[in-house]
Every structure is written in structure tokens, then in C-alpha cells.
Amino acid sequence: MQKYLFKNISVVNEGKVTIIDVFIDNGRIARIGNSLAIKEKVIEIPGEGKHLIPGIIDDQVHFRDPGLTHKADIHTESKAGVAGGVTSFMEMPNTIPSVLTQQLLESKYSTAAQISMANYSFYMGVSNSNSDEVLRTNDKRKSVCGIKIFLGSSTGNMLVDDASTLNRIFSESELLIATHCEDEKIIRENYETLKRHKTELVPSDHPIIRNEDACYSSSSSAIALAKKYNSRLHILHISTAKELDLFDNTIPISQKNITTEVCVHHLHFTSDDYDKLGYLIKCNPAIKSGNNKKALWKGLLDGHLDIIATDHAPHTLAEKEPPYEHAHSGLPLVQHSLLLMLKYYKEGIISLEKVVDKMSHSVASCFKMENRGYIREGYFADLVVLNLNAQTTVTKENILYKCGWSPLEGEIFPAQITDTFVNGNRIYSMDMYGNIIWDESSSGARLEFNR
């Protein structure tokens, strides 16, 4: 394994930016200091004008493997993630078949061990009838990121609405419980109301059907269950202003029993964008009005929202075509989430230190990850080098998603990701001419958790 020495690079870590040297050896951050003199043979990387950050950890992706690999798979999407600075991901169970048994869960780990370019973990899925199987995951609490409950139907058929199942899982699970929160009854009523008045639904109807009340009702119910049983609850993709008051911003994330996530598309798009992008930005929960986007940014910056993720959910363009009932929900984002947040950094909306906190530090703390998410001696060398004086344009030619498209096509981001290291291996790099160099001989590792 190669040894690397970053010289005089601006390290963004734990609320500070410090120009310093960083030595990488045997997959770990071996030393951090000024004017490091390394006697061993190293590859020296000049750091002047560059920033070094811990790799992005995305706690919610759909890589569609197995069963839906015509539009994505673990190799293609982890490669796209690495190009975007994502060094670790946690993937969802609504594949074909759905991951509802321990055998199917371990099968995904076996697949990832062979083809994933980033570090990986997979959620155990919950249905109305697999409680016994789910609770066997308690024995794997140090090697499985969590369990996933769909409290509203989304992509796939995994809605959990049986009260006895929910009470048992919340009372007996020793893992983090991640929830998709939308009230199915409210969604169905809104849909039927619109259908009575319209012959054909359009993209802008989506946030009317999956509205603020549906999100708030479901999140409130999940929180009530978590408080009843003192469960470890993590509510995914908050999309409304109304939900923010449900969460606490007075204690650090390491002490929270109920945590939250916001996704980049809810921070970037509003319902006004349906006119231009149509079903390309149809997703669950829906992208809503601008007042919600404004509130989400405030909640992110003041600590009501704990981490940033993508909910990367690719579909083919054919699967995004109308009518409303046919157009699949979800959009591909994992290659561009960091660049998107760097755009908002350059616009003065969020600090660089806060970007790193919400996309790396806080994710590691939220999931109690072992030796990742920070630039510290002894930690795994999951690292990303940024050039904040360059630009990246999203084009059809440089999109790495298997589905081949992005709702961000044509966007010019005021930053470049020049290198991505996973476990000390430089998997992605950009030379001085802008050419991309890949080391596909390296692979990610199974994430571990300190529970």
C-alpha cells in the first residue's frame, strides 16, 4: 500500500481550518503536524491552494442492487459517489427481493465486498410480519448501520402499518431505527380529492398529495413511539418547516436519542422547479414550497437538523415519464452532493466547517462509527482533496450514474474534487490537465459501529 504525505494543505476538521501536514500509512492517518519529515518512501502531495476534508458519509442511498440493476448497482453508484467525495454509504433495503431476512442482508454485504469502491453498510428492512428476523439484527449491532421502517409507502412495497409490529420493534431493537415518515392515510385522501377534480395529475400536484401534514403526522407518531420505549430513532429526509419544532437543538448530537437528516434536494429545489424539471424531481417526501426550503436551511444551521444526505434514488428516464402514477419517485444525487453544498458555501449560506460537520463528523457521531468521519491520528484515511478555485460543470458526458442523467445537468459548481482516498487508497484523482485517473483495484470495507 502506498504512503502519502500532504504538505501544507488546509485541513478542514472539527470546526477549524489549519494549514498542516498529514501523513497516510497503512490505510490510516499516521501523523498530523507541522513540517513532518518522513524517512520512508512516500508520495508527496503539495497542498498549497487545496483543502483536505474527511470523506463524505451518506447515510441514505438506494443503489438498486439486487433486482433493479438495469438502473443502478453497487459498483456504478459507489464509483459515482467516490468521484463526488463520498467515501462511505449506508444503503436501503427496498430492492428485489426486499432485504427482510438475515440471509438476504448478508448477501448484500458479500456483493459489496467484491464490487464496492466505497465503504458500505446496509439497513435491515422491516415488514409487517418479520419482527423475529429483524430483532436477530441485535446480534450484529456493531456491524449493521441500523434497521429501516417505511412508515409511508415509497419506492417498493414495504409499508409498515401494523401497530403490534411497530411497538415490538421500537421496544426491543438495540439498533438505530431509521424511518421514512409520511402518513399513508393523509396521502391517499389527498390523492383521491385531487383525482375527483382533475382528469390528469401533473408534477406540481406531488407536494399537494404528499403535503406537510402527511410528514408532520407521521414524524410525530414515530417520535411518540421512540419516547415511549426510549428507542434510538433517526428520521430521514425532513422536508417541512412544520416538523422542525419536533426536534431538540439544545444538546450535542452524541447525546441525542432522536436525530434527523435533511437531503440536498430539499435544500436546493422548491416546488417552483416542477415547471422546468417535471417528474425528474418527483421524490418522496416531495420537494415543497420555498418557505420550507428556507426553514430547512435555518434548521440545519441552528442544529435542529443533524446531518446532510442524498437519498440517492436513480431511475431510468423512461421510468420518470408521465402519467403521474407511472413516474417513479427518486433522483440521482450522490456524485454531486458535496459540490452542491460547496456552491452554498461559496454563496455565504453555510461555512466550510459546517459542511464538513453535517456531511462527515455528525454522521459518524450519529451512527457511532468506528474511526471514521474525522481527520485524527489513527483514523482510517477516508479523505477528499478540494480545489475551491476551480469549477465543475455537470454534463451528460461526466455523469457516472448508471441511469445516465442528473437533475443538475448544466449546473456549474465553483469547486473541484481532485482526489478521493478510501482507506488510504487514492481511488480517484484528477491530473493537472483535468484527466481522471481511477484505481479500481481497491475496494471499500464494511463499516463498523461502536455500540
Overview of this protein structure:
- By secondary structure, the chain is of the alpha/beta class.
- The protein has a domain at 55-367: Metal-dependent hydrolases (TIM Barrel, Alpha-Beta Barrel), CATH 3.20.20.
- The chain contains twelve helices and 20 strands.
- Strands 1, 2, 3, 4, 5, 15, 18, 19 and 20 form a nine-stranded mixed beta sheet that branches.
- α4 (163-172) crosses α7 (212-229).
- The longest helix has 18 residues, at 212-229.
- The radius of gyration is 21 Å and the shape is globular.
- The chain starts with a strand and ends in a 13-residue tail after the last strand.
- The model has no long low-confidence stretch (mean pLDDT 97).
Annotation keywords:
single chain; 451 residues; alpha/beta; TIM Barrel; nine-stranded mixed β-sheet; six-stranded parallel β-sheet; 20 strands; 27% helix
Task: Give the CATH superfamily of one domain.
Answer: Metal-dependent hydrolases
Distance between the termini: 30 Å
- Broad CATH class of one domain: Alpha Beta
* Overall pLDDT confidence: 97
Radius of gyration using CA atoms only: 21 Å
**Percent helix among the residues?**
25-40%
Please indicate the percent range of residues in DSSP E strands (runs of 2 or more): 15-25%
Question: What structural class do the secondary elements suggest?
Answer: alpha/beta
Unreliable segments of 5+ consecutive residues: none
Characterize the largest beta sheet: strand count, sense, and whether it forms a barrel. 9 strands, mixed
Task: Classify the fold: give the CATH topology of one domain.
Answer: TIM Barrel
Number of helices: 12
CATH architecture of one domain: Alpha-Beta Barrel
Q: Which descriptor suits the 3D outline?
A: globular
Q: Count every beta strand, where a strand is a DSSP E run of 2 or more residues.
A: 20
